[in-house]
Design a protein that fits this description.
Largest sheet: none
Number of strands: 0
Shape: globular
Structural class: mainly alpha
């Protein structure tokens, strides 16, 4: 995650910084859901996150193609 931020956001400026924020939030949510047994995600927040992650994937795929 750090390398993605350094290389693609700050050094080469390939992606907007909002995509790192999406990546970081998705990672944090995954960590919480895996390791915090008391974590109960808000369904509305999860739906929003799914949309954001789908857009993140589209942006990265467009870059790779």
């Amino acid at each position: 995650m750090g390398w993605f931020n350094k290389k693609f956001i700050y050094e080469d400026k390939i992606f907007d910084s909002k995509w790192f924020a999406v990546y970081k939030e998705a990672y944090t949510n995954r960590q919480l859901s895996d390791y915090d047994f008391m974590y109960e995600p808000n369904p509305d927040d999860i739906l929003i996150m799914i949309k954001e992650v789908k857009n993140f994937i589209i942006v990265v795929e467009e870059y790779l193609n």
